[in-house]
Amino acid sequence: MSEDQKKQLEQQLWNIANTLRGKMNADEFRDYILGFIFYKYLSEKINRYADSILLGDGIKYKDIKEETAKGKEYIEAIKEEALSKLGYFLKPSELFSEVAKRGNSINTVSTSGSEKGTEVERSRNFILEDLQKILTNIEQSTMGTESEDDFDNLFEDLDLTSTKLGRNVSDRNELIAKVLAHLDKIDFQLENIEADVLGDAYEYLIGQFASGAGKKAGEFYTPQQVSKILAKIVTTGKTKLKSAYDPTAGSGSLLLRIAKEVEEVSNFYGQELNRTTYNLCRMNMILHDVHYRKFDIRQEDTLERPQHIGKTFEAVVANPPFSAQWSASPLFMSDDRFSQYGKLAPSSKADFAFVQHMIYHLADNGTMAVVLPHGALFRGGAEQHIRKYLIEDRNYLDAVIGLPANVFYGTSIPTCILVFKKCRENPDNILFIDASHYYEKTTNQYLLRTEDIDKIISTYRKRIEEDKYSKRATLKEIADNDYNLNIPRYIDTFEATESIDLNSIAKEIKAIDNQILETDKIIGAFCKQLNISTPF
Fold it and tell me: What are the DSSP calls for 349-385, one per residue?
């Protein structure tokens, strides 16, 4: 797909989203438009799969007569195959294109009794009840199968009875039918395996909704520029990964970004607290053609109720909620994730609780990269104690990377990336990178350009030292700084101003004074000729 085609597709999708935009806020219309796109994807996927099965019979899936004995036989056979291969099932009449077609067919009803004679009323076919049943049927088709957990309640946020879609049933039906019709015209090119048109379009919309959702955006989306940095770091030196894990998975964008940096990721794991975002993450995985057997996304509080205890992962990434609150219960002192440190992260700031959780899940041959607020680098108390343990006792910290302020949606604070490894190639130093001054300023945010990202990654991978940008700090230097990781302590970005020649400036001032005296004399002479008083 060319860049022009991509932009055209993005504009089409945004126009469709704007059909709903006037009715509700960004969070709400996001759930509808992304849900319908997901439904379209599932329909097209099973339609293509069923057609391939029916190739020898010379018929298309949509042409099957469901009410006939032969049709029922076909459907049962395809259902069995689809549940095993795809993990879900849709009948021909339940396909997106068929529902869109029905919803945009016009009924005409003749009425009589008016003075002018017969009148004709026109209305769209009513599809809301059918659509709600179909979405429920998709979920129910997986019951008792391997994919049940991955499809359970996926469409629960699509409330087709909501008055936000219209004041009455007719208005709601009209709006949904229009949205389906617009989406039905878009070709997501599922046959083009290399392009991932639909996945990229979905990511585009998620990013657009995040930028419009303000502070809440951080709950489900990491800007792609930051995702690229994290993904490139944890895949350094690798072409295949056995596993990737994100304990605050959001929409899954970080995990999916990792997949773009290597040839293969065998399995994806994640946990997400917010129910709606958890649904979004599972949809995003399936839309990017990650098979349901290859991902395990759970919905729960990661710190309080972890779901993958005992597992370790080769690549661990996260953008946790900055300085979130957690219980910090003393009971956690016997938890394997925290017990060895001797102290828990403070209840008012869970940043290092997430770090400890991620370290626990990091494989010996793995790399971990986490985004944190700058305060995590230098705050004292328990956080300082944990930093000291990670550096002095374990020597896990590999790099500290400072990012520009105003990169994340909903917050303007500067952030940093901490990189950890349990088996470090460079155990005698920690690399510091100050990338905070390398960005492009846009209307609402700062943007890391391709060259800014490449500079960070190249510096990290080659461990380059560059004046005012990067430095390899020894463990002794860090110990001498009481394990304060504040970047300016290690990288001096001070720009000396030019020295000022005071004698030269004094001469210039004296010359100006002389010029003023000469000008006063000339003005005085003119005033004398005009027989008026001088102004000085």
Answer: --HHHHHHHHHHHEEEEEEEEEEEETHHHH--THHHH
Q: Answer yes or no: are the C-beta atoms of 370 and 234 closer than 8 Å.
A: no
Q: Reduced to 3 states, what is the DSSP secondary structure of residue 8? A: helix
**Number of domains present in the structure of the chain:** 3
316 lies in the same domain as 367: yes
What single-letter DSSP state applies at residue 22? T
Q: Identify whether residues 232 and 89 lie together within a single domain.
A: no
Summarised one tens digit per residue, pLDDT across range 270-325 is 999 999 889 989 998 998 889 999 999 999 999 999 999 999 999 999 999 999 99
The Cα 365–Cα 421 span in angstroms is 8
Count of Cβ atoms closer than 10 Å to residue 178 Cβ: 17
Domain that holds residue 536: 501-536
Does residue 529 sit in the same domain as residue 466? no
More confident residue, 441 or 434: 434
Q: Are residues 104 and 231 in the same domain?
A: no
Evaluate whether residue 416 is within a structural domain: yes
Cα–Cα distance for residue pair 178/184, rounded to 1 Å? 10
pLDDT in tens, 221-277: 788 899 999 999 999 999 999 999 999 998 898 999 999 999 999 999 999 999 988
Is the same domain home to 446 and 524?
no
Residue 394 lies in a domain: yes
Q: State the pairing for strand pair 117-124/240-246.
A: unpaired
d(CA 44, CA 61): 11
The DSSP element (H or E) to which 74 belongs, if any, is: helix 69-85
CA atoms of 318 and 248, how far apart (whole Å): 6
- Please check whether residue 193 lies inside any domain of the structure: no
Please answer whether residues 489 and 481 qualify as being in contact, where contact means their C-beta atoms are separated by less than 8 angstroms: yes
The secondary structure of residue 4, as a DSSP letter, is: H
Q: Which residue has the tokens 């990650």?
A: 290
User: In this structure, what are the phi and psi dihedrals at residue 400, rounded to the nearest 5 degrees?
Assistant: -125, 120
Cβ-proximal residues to 58 (8 Å cutoff; 6+ apart), any chain: none
Give CA 179 to chain center in angstroms. 24
Helix segments in 416-469, DSSP class H: 450-462
Quickly list DSSP for 243-301: EEEETT-TTSHHHHHHHHHSSEEEEEEEEES-HHHHHHHHHHHHHTT--GGGEEEEES-
Q: Which residues contact 218 (CB under 8 A, 6 or more apart)?
A: 319, 321, 322, 408, 409, 410, 411
Question: Does residue 469 sit within a domain?
Answer: yes
